Protein backbone atom coordinates (compact mmCIF):
# COMPACT_ATOMS: atom_id res chain seq x y z
CA UNK A 1 0.00 0.00 0.00
CA UNK A 2 1.29 3.46 -0.90
CA UNK A 3 0.70 6.45 1.37
CA UNK A 4 1.23 10.08 0.32
CA UNK A 5 2.64 12.31 3.05
CA UNK A 6 3.21 16.02 2.37
CA UNK A 7 6.80 16.89 3.11
CA UNK A 8 6.57 20.70 2.93
CA UNK A 9 4.01 23.30 1.99
CA UNK A 10 4.78 26.86 0.95
CA UNK A 11 3.15 29.94 -0.46
CA UNK A 12 3.84 31.23 -3.93
CA UNK A 13 7.02 33.33 -4.16
CA UNK A 14 6.64 34.73 -7.64
CA UNK A 15 8.60 37.91 -6.89
CA UNK A 16 11.61 36.03 -5.54
CA UNK A 17 11.43 33.50 -8.39
CA UNK A 18 11.50 36.29 -10.96
CA UNK A 19 14.43 38.04 -9.28
CA UNK A 20 16.62 34.92 -9.01
CA UNK A 21 15.36 33.51 -12.32
CA UNK A 22 16.10 36.57 -14.43
CA UNK A 23 19.46 37.23 -12.77
CA UNK A 24 20.82 33.69 -12.55
CA UNK A 25 18.22 31.41 -14.17
CA UNK A 26 17.34 29.93 -10.75
CA UNK A 27 13.59 29.66 -11.04
CA UNK A 28 13.09 26.75 -8.64
CA UNK A 29 13.24 27.05 -4.90
CA UNK A 30 15.75 24.24 -4.50
CA UNK A 31 18.11 26.11 -6.85
CA UNK A 32 18.31 29.12 -4.54
CA UNK A 33 20.74 29.43 -1.68
CA UNK A 34 21.43 31.65 1.33
CA UNK A 35 25.09 30.64 1.38
CA UNK A 36 27.81 33.27 1.02
CA UNK A 37 28.52 34.37 -2.55
CA UNK A 38 31.61 32.74 -4.01
CA UNK A 39 34.71 34.81 -4.72
CA UNK A 40 34.25 34.26 -8.46
CA UNK A 41 30.73 35.68 -8.33
CA UNK A 42 31.91 38.55 -6.13
CA UNK A 43 34.41 39.39 -8.86
CA UNK A 44 31.63 39.45 -11.44
CA UNK A 45 29.59 41.66 -9.12
CA UNK A 46 32.49 44.13 -9.02
CA UNK A 47 32.77 43.98 -12.82
CA UNK A 48 29.04 44.68 -13.05
CA UNK A 49 29.39 47.63 -10.68
CA UNK A 50 32.34 49.04 -12.63
CA UNK A 51 30.47 48.64 -15.92
CA UNK A 52 27.47 50.44 -14.44
CA UNK A 53 29.60 53.37 -13.24
CA UNK A 54 31.42 53.63 -16.58
CA UNK A 55 28.17 53.52 -18.55
CA UNK A 56 26.66 56.11 -16.22
CA UNK A 57 29.50 58.54 -17.04
CA UNK A 58 29.31 57.64 -20.75
CA UNK A 59 25.55 58.18 -20.81
CA UNK A 60 25.87 61.50 -18.97
CA UNK A 61 28.61 62.62 -21.37
CA UNK A 62 26.46 62.05 -24.44
CA UNK A 63 23.43 63.60 -22.76
CA UNK A 64 25.30 66.85 -22.12
CA UNK A 65 27.21 66.74 -25.43
CA UNK A 66 23.91 67.37 -27.23
CA UNK A 67 25.09 70.96 -27.57
CA UNK A 68 27.81 69.80 -29.98
CA UNK A 69 26.24 66.95 -31.94
CA UNK A 70 26.67 68.86 -35.21
CA UNK A 71 30.34 69.36 -34.46
CA UNK A 72 30.75 65.62 -33.85
CA UNK A 73 28.99 64.76 -37.11
CA UNK A 74 31.27 67.15 -38.97
CA UNK A 75 34.33 65.44 -37.46
CA UNK A 76 32.98 62.13 -38.77
CA UNK A 77 32.39 63.66 -42.20
CA UNK A 78 35.91 65.04 -42.27
CA UNK A 79 37.27 61.50 -41.82
CA UNK A 80 34.82 59.49 -43.89
CA UNK A 81 33.81 61.94 -46.61
CA UNK A 82 30.12 61.06 -46.14
CA UNK A 83 27.61 62.97 -44.08
CA UNK A 84 25.50 61.07 -41.57
CA UNK A 85 24.17 61.57 -38.07
CA UNK A 86 26.66 59.45 -36.15
CA UNK A 87 25.06 60.27 -32.83
CA UNK A 88 21.98 58.14 -33.53
CA UNK A 89 23.63 54.67 -33.28
CA UNK A 90 25.77 55.86 -30.37
CA UNK A 91 22.75 57.12 -28.41
CA UNK A 92 20.73 53.99 -29.21
CA UNK A 93 23.43 51.56 -28.08
CA UNK A 94 24.28 53.66 -25.03
CA UNK A 95 20.65 53.84 -23.92
CA UNK A 96 20.15 50.10 -24.46
CA UNK A 97 23.37 49.15 -22.68
CA UNK A 98 22.76 51.49 -19.75
CA UNK A 99 19.19 50.23 -19.31
CA UNK A 100 20.36 46.60 -19.39
CA UNK A 101 23.22 47.08 -16.92
CA UNK A 102 21.03 49.17 -14.60
CA UNK A 103 18.43 46.39 -14.60
CA UNK A 104 21.07 43.84 -13.62
CA UNK A 105 22.32 46.16 -10.86
CA UNK A 106 18.80 46.43 -9.43
CA UNK A 107 18.43 42.64 -9.50
CA UNK A 108 21.81 42.25 -7.75
CA UNK A 109 20.74 44.67 -5.02
CA UNK A 110 17.50 42.73 -4.60
CA UNK A 111 19.54 39.55 -4.12
CA UNK A 112 21.57 41.23 -1.40
CA UNK A 113 18.46 42.64 0.28
CA UNK A 114 16.79 39.22 0.29
CA UNK A 115 19.88 37.38 1.48
CA UNK A 116 20.17 35.37 -1.72
CA UNK A 117 23.45 34.13 -3.12
CA UNK A 118 24.64 36.09 -6.16
CA UNK A 119 25.03 33.87 -9.19
CA UNK A 120 25.03 35.81 -12.46
CA UNK A 121 24.02 33.65 -15.43
CA UNK A 122 26.66 33.11 -18.10
CA UNK A 123 24.57 34.84 -20.76
CA UNK A 124 24.46 37.96 -18.60
CA UNK A 125 28.21 37.69 -18.09
CA UNK A 126 28.64 37.81 -21.84
CA UNK A 127 26.30 40.80 -22.02
CA UNK A 128 28.17 42.65 -19.25
CA UNK A 129 31.50 41.95 -20.94
CA UNK A 130 30.18 43.19 -24.29
CA UNK A 131 28.81 46.38 -22.69
CA UNK A 132 32.09 47.01 -20.86
CA UNK A 133 34.31 46.48 -23.90
CA UNK A 134 32.05 48.52 -26.19
CA UNK A 135 32.06 51.43 -23.76
CA UNK A 136 35.83 51.30 -23.34
CA UNK A 137 36.29 51.35 -27.13
CA UNK A 138 33.91 54.30 -27.33
CA UNK A 139 35.78 56.23 -24.65
CA UNK A 140 39.11 55.63 -26.40
CA UNK A 141 37.66 56.69 -29.76
CA UNK A 142 36.26 59.94 -28.38
CA UNK A 143 39.52 60.62 -26.60
CA UNK A 144 41.40 60.33 -29.88
CA UNK A 145 39.04 62.22 -32.18
CA UNK A 146 37.05 64.60 -29.97
CA UNK A 147 39.07 64.97 -26.76
CA UNK A 148 38.09 68.60 -26.21
CA UNK A 149 34.48 67.52 -25.65
CA UNK A 150 35.34 65.90 -22.31
CA UNK A 151 35.35 69.46 -20.94
CA UNK A 152 31.57 69.43 -21.21
CA UNK A 153 31.36 67.22 -18.10
CA UNK A 154 32.87 69.67 -15.57
CA UNK A 155 31.18 72.59 -17.31
CA UNK A 156 27.78 70.88 -17.13
CA UNK A 157 28.28 70.25 -13.41
CA UNK A 158 27.88 74.00 -12.98
CA UNK A 159 24.29 73.56 -14.15
CA UNK A 160 23.47 70.06 -12.91
CA UNK A 161 25.79 69.65 -9.90
CA UNK A 162 23.38 70.72 -7.14
CA UNK A 163 20.64 68.47 -8.51
CA UNK A 164 22.95 65.50 -9.13
CA UNK A 165 24.12 65.86 -5.54
CA UNK A 166 20.58 65.62 -4.19
CA UNK A 167 19.87 62.63 -6.46
CA UNK A 168 23.04 60.82 -5.37
CA UNK A 169 22.23 61.58 -1.74
CA UNK A 170 18.75 60.10 -2.13
CA UNK A 171 20.18 56.95 -3.77
CA UNK A 172 22.82 56.37 -1.08
CA UNK A 173 20.25 57.04 1.63
CA UNK A 174 17.95 54.42 0.11
CA UNK A 175 20.83 51.93 0.06
CA UNK A 176 21.05 52.23 3.84
CA UNK A 177 18.18 49.71 4.07
CA UNK A 178 20.30 47.06 2.36
CA UNK A 179 23.45 48.02 4.29
CA UNK A 180 21.64 47.97 7.63
CA UNK A 181 20.15 44.57 6.80
CA UNK A 182 23.58 43.16 5.98
CA UNK A 183 25.04 44.51 9.19
CA UNK A 184 22.15 43.15 11.26
CA UNK A 185 22.47 39.67 9.75
CA UNK A 186 26.25 39.49 9.92
CA UNK A 187 27.73 37.29 12.61
CA UNK A 188 31.28 38.66 12.39
CA UNK A 189 31.92 41.91 14.22
CA UNK A 190 34.80 42.87 11.90
CA UNK A 191 32.52 42.59 8.86
CA UNK A 192 29.94 44.80 10.55
CA UNK A 193 32.53 47.44 11.41
CA UNK A 194 34.03 47.49 7.91
CA UNK A 195 30.66 47.77 6.18
CA UNK A 196 29.43 50.52 8.49
CA UNK A 197 32.65 52.54 8.17
CA UNK A 198 32.68 52.19 4.39
CA UNK A 199 29.06 53.27 4.07
CA UNK A 200 29.45 56.19 6.47
CA UNK A 201 32.56 57.35 4.59
CA UNK A 202 30.63 57.49 1.33
CA UNK A 203 27.72 59.22 3.05
CA UNK A 204 29.97 61.78 4.74
CA UNK A 205 31.69 62.47 1.42
CA UNK A 206 28.32 63.20 -0.18
CA UNK A 207 27.39 65.48 2.69
CA UNK A 208 30.52 67.56 2.06
CA UNK A 209 30.43 67.54 -1.77
CA UNK A 210 28.70 70.98 -1.98
CA UNK A 211 31.84 72.52 -0.45
CA UNK A 212 33.57 71.75 -3.76
CA UNK A 213 30.64 72.42 -6.08
CA UNK A 214 30.75 75.81 -7.74
CA UNK A 215 28.21 77.34 -10.05
CA UNK A 216 27.86 80.90 -11.31
CA UNK A 217 24.10 80.43 -11.00
CA UNK A 218 24.44 80.40 -7.20
CA UNK A 219 24.50 84.15 -6.84
CA UNK A 220 22.51 87.13 -5.69
CA UNK A 221 19.80 87.52 -8.36
CA UNK A 222 20.08 91.30 -8.09
CA UNK A 223 23.64 91.15 -9.50
CA UNK A 224 22.63 89.21 -12.63
CA UNK A 225 24.06 90.80 -15.78
CA UNK A 226 21.89 91.67 -18.82
CA UNK A 227 20.85 88.83 -21.10
CA UNK A 228 23.73 87.88 -23.45
CA UNK A 229 23.28 88.90 -27.06
CA UNK A 230 22.85 86.07 -29.55
CA UNK A 231 24.81 85.83 -32.81
CA UNK A 232 23.52 83.54 -35.53
CA UNK A 233 26.38 81.07 -36.13
CA UNK A 234 26.25 80.53 -39.92
CA UNK A 235 22.81 82.14 -39.69
CA UNK A 236 20.18 79.75 -38.41
CA UNK A 237 21.61 76.45 -39.71
CA UNK A 238 19.02 74.32 -37.95
CA UNK A 239 16.28 76.01 -39.97
CA UNK A 240 18.04 76.76 -43.26
CA UNK A 241 21.21 75.73 -45.11
CA UNK A 242 24.28 77.16 -43.38
CA UNK A 243 26.08 80.27 -44.66
CA UNK A 244 23.33 81.14 -47.16
CA UNK A 245 21.37 84.38 -47.39
CA UNK A 246 18.19 82.54 -46.43
CA UNK A 247 19.89 81.20 -43.30
CA UNK A 248 20.93 84.69 -42.22
CA UNK A 249 17.49 86.06 -42.97
CA UNK A 250 15.95 83.35 -40.79
CA UNK A 251 18.33 84.36 -38.01
CA UNK A 252 17.26 87.98 -38.36
CA UNK A 253 13.63 86.90 -38.05
CA UNK A 254 14.60 85.50 -34.65
CA UNK A 255 15.94 88.91 -33.54
CA UNK A 256 19.61 87.99 -33.32
CA UNK A 257 21.98 90.88 -32.62
CA UNK A 258 24.80 89.63 -34.83
CA UNK A 259 25.80 87.18 -37.54
CA UNK A 260 28.81 84.87 -37.71
CA UNK A 261 30.19 83.26 -40.86
CA UNK A 262 33.16 81.35 -42.29
CA UNK A 263 34.93 83.05 -45.20
CA UNK A 264 37.19 81.65 -47.93
CA UNK A 265 38.80 83.40 -50.93
CA UNK A 266 38.05 82.34 -54.51
CA UNK A 267 40.71 82.05 -57.19
CA UNK A 268 39.74 85.47 -58.56
CA UNK A 269 39.88 87.13 -55.12
CA UNK A 270 36.20 87.15 -54.12
CA UNK A 271 35.57 86.38 -50.42
CA UNK A 272 32.67 83.92 -50.09
CA UNK A 273 31.02 81.99 -47.28
CA UNK A 274 32.02 78.34 -46.85
CA UNK A 275 32.75 76.27 -43.74
CA UNK A 276 34.22 73.11 -45.29
CA UNK A 277 37.52 72.97 -47.17
CA UNK A 278 35.68 71.54 -50.20
CA UNK A 279 32.20 71.90 -51.70
CA UNK A 280 30.87 68.33 -51.61
CA UNK A 281 28.77 68.50 -48.44
CA UNK A 282 26.92 71.79 -48.92
CA UNK A 283 26.62 72.12 -52.71
CA UNK A 284 25.87 70.04 -55.81
CA UNK A 285 29.45 70.26 -57.08
CA UNK A 286 29.41 66.51 -57.81
CA UNK A 287 26.68 67.16 -60.38
CA UNK A 288 27.89 70.44 -61.87
CA UNK A 289 31.67 69.92 -61.78
CA UNK A 290 32.04 66.18 -61.29
CA UNK A 291 35.69 66.20 -62.38
CA UNK A 292 36.56 68.90 -59.83
CA UNK A 293 34.48 67.80 -56.87
CA UNK A 294 37.57 66.93 -54.78
CA UNK A 295 39.16 70.35 -55.33
CA UNK A 296 39.39 72.81 -52.50
CA UNK A 297 36.60 75.38 -52.44
CA UNK A 298 39.09 78.25 -52.73
CA UNK A 299 40.30 76.94 -56.11
CA UNK A 300 36.97 77.77 -57.80
CA UNK A 301 36.33 81.20 -59.29
CA UNK A 302 33.30 83.22 -58.32
CA UNK A 303 31.53 82.56 -61.63
CA UNK A 304 31.75 78.81 -61.08
CA UNK A 305 30.65 79.13 -57.47
CA UNK A 306 27.51 81.00 -58.50
CA UNK A 307 26.44 78.04 -60.64
CA UNK A 308 26.23 75.75 -57.60
CA UNK A 309 23.12 75.05 -55.58
CA UNK A 310 23.75 75.45 -51.85
CA UNK A 311 20.34 74.51 -50.47
CA UNK A 312 19.12 71.17 -51.82
CA UNK A 313 21.57 69.22 -49.64
CA UNK A 314 19.79 70.57 -46.54
CA UNK A 315 16.48 69.02 -47.58
CA UNK A 316 18.18 65.78 -48.61
CA UNK A 317 20.49 65.18 -45.63
CA UNK A 318 18.29 66.93 -43.02
CA UNK A 319 21.29 67.43 -40.70
CA UNK A 320 19.22 68.66 -37.74
CA UNK A 321 16.05 66.61 -38.32
CA UNK A 322 14.10 69.83 -38.95
CA UNK A 323 13.31 69.67 -42.68
CA UNK A 324 9.85 68.22 -42.04
CA UNK A 325 8.93 71.30 -39.97
CA UNK A 326 9.40 73.66 -42.93
CA UNK A 327 6.47 75.04 -44.88
CA UNK A 328 6.21 74.58 -48.63
CA UNK A 329 7.37 78.16 -49.19
CA UNK A 330 10.36 77.67 -46.89
CA UNK A 331 11.31 74.46 -48.68
CA UNK A 332 11.20 76.23 -52.04
CA UNK A 333 13.41 79.04 -50.73
CA UNK A 334 15.78 76.50 -49.22
CA UNK A 335 16.07 74.50 -52.43
CA UNK A 336 17.02 77.58 -54.46
CA UNK A 337 19.91 78.93 -52.40
CA UNK A 338 23.29 79.68 -53.94
CA UNK A 339 26.76 80.31 -52.51
CA UNK A 340 26.78 83.64 -50.65
CA UNK A 341 29.56 86.22 -50.92
CA UNK A 342 30.92 88.18 -47.98
CA UNK A 343 29.77 91.41 -49.61
CA UNK A 344 26.17 90.14 -49.76
CA UNK A 345 26.28 89.28 -46.06
CA UNK A 346 27.73 92.66 -45.10
CA UNK A 347 25.08 94.53 -47.08
CA UNK A 348 22.39 92.52 -45.30
CA UNK A 349 23.95 93.33 -41.93
CA UNK A 350 24.25 97.00 -42.83
CA UNK A 351 20.59 97.16 -43.81
CA UNK A 352 19.54 95.70 -40.46
CA UNK A 353 22.28 97.51 -38.51
CA UNK A 354 23.65 94.40 -36.81
CA UNK A 355 27.19 93.20 -36.16
CA UNK A 356 29.06 90.66 -38.27
CA UNK A 357 31.97 88.47 -37.22
CA UNK A 358 33.69 86.18 -39.68
CA UNK A 359 36.60 83.76 -39.53
CA UNK A 360 38.76 84.18 -42.58
CA UNK A 361 40.56 81.10 -43.89
CA UNK A 362 44.05 81.62 -45.22
CA UNK A 363 44.44 80.13 -48.72
CA UNK A 364 47.21 77.57 -49.42
CA UNK A 365 50.60 78.77 -50.72
CA UNK A 366 49.83 77.82 -54.33
CA UNK A 367 46.69 79.97 -54.34
CA UNK A 368 46.83 83.14 -56.51
CA UNK A 369 45.64 85.26 -53.57
CA UNK A 370 48.04 83.80 -51.03
CA UNK A 371 49.78 87.15 -50.55
CA UNK A 372 46.73 89.39 -51.05
CA UNK A 373 43.99 87.57 -49.12
CA UNK A 374 43.90 90.15 -46.32
CA UNK A 375 43.71 93.08 -48.74
CA UNK A 376 41.09 91.32 -50.88
CA UNK A 377 38.87 90.74 -47.84
CA UNK A 378 39.39 94.26 -46.49
CA UNK A 379 38.50 95.70 -49.89
CA UNK A 380 35.24 93.68 -49.92
CA UNK A 381 34.39 95.03 -46.46
CA UNK A 382 34.98 98.64 -47.51
CA UNK A 383 33.09 98.27 -50.80
CA UNK A 384 30.02 96.85 -49.07
CA UNK A 385 29.33 100.17 -47.38
CA UNK A 386 28.76 98.56 -43.97
CA UNK A 387 29.67 100.78 -40.98
CA UNK A 388 33.10 99.66 -39.82
CA UNK A 389 31.99 99.49 -36.19
CA UNK A 390 29.63 96.62 -37.11
CA UNK A 391 32.45 94.40 -38.42
CA UNK A 392 34.47 92.26 -36.01
CA UNK A 393 37.83 91.67 -37.67
CA UNK A 394 39.50 88.41 -36.53
CA UNK A 395 42.67 87.66 -38.62
CA UNK A 396 45.90 88.37 -36.74
CA UNK A 397 47.93 88.71 -39.94
CA UNK A 398 48.70 92.33 -40.90
CA UNK A 399 46.45 93.59 -38.10
CA UNK A 400 48.41 96.85 -37.77
CA UNK A 401 47.98 97.58 -41.47
CA UNK A 402 44.24 96.80 -41.28
CA UNK A 403 43.89 99.22 -38.35
CA UNK A 404 45.52 102.01 -40.41
CA UNK A 405 43.31 101.43 -43.45
CA UNK A 406 40.08 100.79 -41.51
CA UNK A 407 40.46 102.13 -37.95
CA UNK A 408 36.76 101.71 -37.20
CA UNK A 409 36.74 97.90 -37.36
CA UNK A 410 36.22 96.10 -34.06
CA UNK A 411 39.48 94.22 -33.58
CA UNK A 412 38.68 90.70 -32.36
CA UNK A 413 40.99 87.84 -31.41
CA UNK A 414 40.41 84.10 -31.74
CA UNK A 415 43.26 83.39 -29.33
CA UNK A 416 43.01 83.85 -25.57
CA UNK A 417 45.66 86.20 -24.21
CA UNK A 418 45.90 88.23 -21.04
CA UNK A 419 43.94 91.51 -21.05
CA UNK A 420 47.07 93.68 -21.04
CA UNK A 421 48.45 92.05 -24.21
CA UNK A 422 45.08 92.38 -25.94
CA UNK A 423 44.74 96.06 -25.08
CA UNK A 424 48.30 96.71 -26.23
CA UNK A 425 47.37 95.21 -29.61
CA UNK A 426 44.21 97.29 -29.83
CA UNK A 427 41.96 94.25 -29.45
CA UNK A 428 38.70 94.87 -27.62
CA UNK A 429 36.88 91.59 -28.18
CA UNK A 430 37.46 87.83 -27.89
CA UNK A 431 35.75 85.02 -29.80
CA UNK A 432 36.34 81.72 -27.97
CA UNK A 433 34.87 78.25 -27.70
CA UNK A 434 32.88 77.84 -24.49
CA UNK A 435 35.39 75.39 -22.99
CA UNK A 436 38.32 77.78 -23.44
CA UNK A 437 37.37 80.15 -20.67
CA UNK A 438 36.36 79.88 -17.01
CA UNK A 439 33.99 81.98 -14.94
CA UNK A 440 36.88 83.73 -13.16
CA UNK A 441 38.51 84.60 -16.50
CA UNK A 442 35.22 85.98 -17.78
CA UNK A 443 35.08 88.31 -14.79
CA UNK A 444 38.70 89.35 -15.33
CA UNK A 445 38.19 90.18 -19.01
CA UNK A 446 34.98 92.04 -18.29
CA UNK A 447 36.72 94.20 -15.68
CA UNK A 448 39.35 95.10 -18.27
CA UNK A 449 36.74 96.08 -20.87
CA UNK A 450 37.33 93.06 -23.10
CA UNK A 451 34.02 91.84 -24.49
CA UNK A 452 33.50 88.11 -24.94
CA UNK A 453 31.58 86.20 -27.57
CA UNK A 454 31.43 82.47 -26.81
CA UNK A 455 30.61 79.77 -29.36
CA UNK A 456 28.85 77.44 -30.05
CA UNK A 457 26.00 77.69 -27.52
CA UNK A 458 22.84 75.78 -28.44
CA UNK A 459 21.50 74.45 -25.13
CA UNK A 460 19.55 76.54 -22.58
CA UNK A 461 21.59 75.15 -19.66
CA UNK A 462 24.89 76.29 -21.23
CA UNK A 463 23.41 79.65 -22.17
CA UNK A 464 22.24 80.07 -18.56
CA UNK A 465 25.66 79.22 -17.10
CA UNK A 466 27.37 81.71 -19.41
CA UNK A 467 24.72 84.32 -18.64
CA UNK A 468 25.33 83.98 -14.91
CA UNK A 469 29.10 84.13 -15.57
CA UNK A 470 28.73 87.54 -17.19
CA UNK A 471 29.35 86.74 -20.89
CA UNK A 472 28.19 89.60 -23.10
CA UNK A 473 27.26 87.56 -26.18
CA UNK A 474 27.14 84.01 -27.55
CA UNK A 475 27.19 82.52 -31.02
CA UNK A 476 24.54 79.88 -31.60
CA UNK A 477 23.32 77.46 -34.24
CA UNK A 478 19.96 77.48 -32.47
CA UNK A 479 18.82 81.08 -32.02
CA UNK A 480 15.24 79.83 -32.22
CA UNK A 481 15.86 77.85 -29.00
CA UNK A 482 17.75 80.56 -27.11
CA UNK A 483 15.08 83.12 -27.99
CA UNK A 484 12.80 81.15 -25.65
CA UNK A 485 15.16 81.61 -22.66
CA UNK A 486 14.23 84.96 -21.12
CA UNK A 487 15.82 84.06 -17.77
CA UNK A 488 18.45 81.54 -16.57
CA UNK A 489 17.11 77.99 -16.27
CA UNK A 490 17.71 78.22 -12.53
CA UNK A 491 19.13 80.83 -10.22
CA UNK A 492 19.34 80.85 -6.43
CA UNK A 493 21.11 82.87 -3.78
CA UNK A 494 23.93 81.32 -1.70
CA UNK A 495 21.69 81.36 1.38
CA UNK A 496 18.94 79.46 -0.42
CA UNK A 497 21.40 76.86 -1.66
CA UNK A 498 22.95 76.46 1.78
CA UNK A 499 19.50 75.92 3.28
CA UNK A 500 18.67 73.22 0.68
CA UNK A 501 22.07 71.57 1.19
CA UNK A 502 21.90 71.45 5.00
CA UNK A 503 18.24 70.37 4.99
CA UNK A 504 18.94 67.52 2.56
CA UNK A 505 21.88 66.33 4.67
CA UNK A 506 19.89 66.43 7.91
CA UNK A 507 16.94 64.58 6.40
CA UNK A 508 19.25 61.96 4.94
CA UNK A 509 21.07 61.46 8.24
CA UNK A 510 17.80 61.13 10.15
CA UNK A 511 16.48 58.56 7.64
CA UNK A 512 19.70 56.53 7.79
CA UNK A 513 19.70 56.46 11.60
CA UNK A 514 16.02 55.48 11.62
CA UNK A 515 16.62 52.64 9.15
CA UNK A 516 19.54 51.23 11.15
CA UNK A 517 17.49 51.34 14.34
CA UNK A 518 14.52 49.68 12.62
CA UNK A 519 16.65 46.90 11.12
CA UNK A 520 18.29 46.17 14.48
CA UNK A 521 14.91 46.19 16.19
CA UNK A 522 13.63 43.56 13.72
CA UNK A 523 16.77 41.53 14.27
CA UNK A 524 16.39 41.50 18.04
CA UNK A 525 12.69 40.76 17.78
CA UNK A 526 13.09 37.72 15.55
CA UNK A 527 15.98 36.36 17.52
CA UNK A 528 13.94 36.61 20.68
CA UNK A 529 11.09 34.79 18.96
CA UNK A 530 13.37 31.81 18.40
CA UNK A 531 14.77 32.44 14.93
CA UNK A 532 18.40 31.49 14.73
CA UNK A 533 19.17 33.79 11.85
CA UNK A 534 17.62 36.71 10.05
CA UNK A 535 16.08 35.22 6.90
CA UNK A 536 14.63 37.96 4.70
CA UNK A 537 12.96 35.36 2.48
CA UNK A 538 10.92 34.04 5.37
CA UNK A 539 10.12 37.49 6.73
CA UNK A 540 9.28 39.27 3.49
CA UNK A 541 7.87 36.54 1.30
CA UNK A 542 6.44 34.01 3.70
CA UNK A 543 3.42 34.07 5.98
CA UNK A 544 1.50 31.66 8.14
CA UNK A 545 1.03 28.33 6.39
CA UNK A 546 -2.52 27.12 6.09
CA UNK A 547 -2.86 23.71 4.53
CA UNK A 548 -6.53 24.20 3.85
CA UNK A 549 -6.02 27.31 1.74
CA UNK A 550 -6.35 27.08 -2.03
CA UNK A 551 -3.19 29.21 -2.39
CA UNK A 552 -1.06 26.56 -0.68
CA UNK A 553 0.73 24.16 -3.02
CA UNK A 554 2.48 20.94 -2.24
CA UNK A 555 6.20 21.43 -2.92
CA UNK A 556 7.30 17.83 -2.62
CA UNK A 557 5.78 14.54 -1.66
CA UNK A 558 7.44 11.55 -0.11
CA UNK A 559 6.17 8.12 -1.08
CA UNK A 560 6.08 5.77 1.88
CA UNK A 561 5.80 2.16 0.99
CA UNK A 562 4.49 0.00 3.78
CA UNK A 563 2.20 -2.97 4.40
CA UNK A 564 2.28 -6.73 4.06
CA UNK A 565 3.00 -8.37 0.75
CA UNK A 566 -0.14 -9.60 -0.86
From TrEMBL:
Q: What is its main location?
A: membrane
**GO cellular component, as recorded:** plasma membrane
Molecular function per GO: glycerophosphodiester phosphodiesterase activity
Keyword Transmembrane carried by entry:
yes
Q: Which InterPro entries match?
A: GP_PDE_dom, PLC-like_Pdiesterase_TIM-brl
Q: Which SUPFAM superfamilies match?
A: PLC-like phosphodiesterases
Spell out where the chain crosses the membrane: 42-63, 90-114, 126-143, 163-181, 193-213, 499-518
User: One Pfam match, by short name?
Assistant: GDPD
Question: Which GO biological process annotations does it have?
Answer: lipid metabolic process; positive regulation of neuron differentiation
Please state which protein family the record places this protein in: Belongs to the glycerophosphoryl diester phosphodiesterase family.
> What is the protein's given name?
Glycerophosphodiester phosphodiesterase domain containing 5b
User: Lineage, please?
Assistant: Eukaryota, Metazoa, Chordata, Craniata, Vertebrata
Amino acid sequence: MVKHQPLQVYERQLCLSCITGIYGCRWKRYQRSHDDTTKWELLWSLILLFTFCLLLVWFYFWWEAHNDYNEFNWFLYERSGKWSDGTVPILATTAAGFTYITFLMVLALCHVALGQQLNLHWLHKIGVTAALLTTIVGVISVNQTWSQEWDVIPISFQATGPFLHIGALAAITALSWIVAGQVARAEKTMFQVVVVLLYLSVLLGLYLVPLYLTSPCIMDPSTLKPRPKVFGHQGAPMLAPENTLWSFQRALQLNVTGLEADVAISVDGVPFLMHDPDLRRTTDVEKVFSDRQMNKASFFNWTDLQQLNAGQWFLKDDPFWTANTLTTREKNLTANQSVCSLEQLLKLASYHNISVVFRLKKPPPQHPCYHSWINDTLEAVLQSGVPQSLVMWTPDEQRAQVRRVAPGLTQTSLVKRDPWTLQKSGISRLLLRYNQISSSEIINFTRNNISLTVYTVNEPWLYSVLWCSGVSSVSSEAPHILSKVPYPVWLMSPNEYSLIWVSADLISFAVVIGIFILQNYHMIRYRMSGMRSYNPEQIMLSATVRTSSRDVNVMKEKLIFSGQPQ
